[in-house]
Q: What sequence folds into this?
């Protein structure tokens, strides 16, 4: 395996990783921001108030986009095996 092939596979892997985790991370960030603003306005400083909605949004997002995420990972894995076999 040459350095160019390794770097190409690595960069594609990082791109797939960022693409797959983006919906969960962005929604969690937005919910956390909204709850923080709510807490600042109402001066309610309860830890569970931030944790419970975020965990629910993460599970809901995973339930909705889980199939798409799995398909992206399977496509990347198939591409890896195809390239590996082509190099041999």
A:
């Amino acid at each position: 395996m040459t350095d160019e092939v390794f770097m190409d596979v690595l960069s594609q892997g990082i791109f797939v990783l960022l693409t797959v985790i983006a919906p969960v991370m962005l929604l969690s960030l937005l919910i956390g921001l909204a709850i923080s603003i709510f807490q600042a306005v109402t001066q309610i400083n309860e830890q569970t108030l931030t944790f419970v909605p975020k965990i629910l949004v993460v599970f809901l997002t995973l339930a909705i986009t889980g199939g798409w995420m799995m398909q992206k990972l399977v496509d990347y894995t198939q591409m890896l095996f195809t390239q590996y076999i082509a190099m041999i």
About this structure: The radius of gyration is 19 Å. The helical segments are 3-42, 47-87.
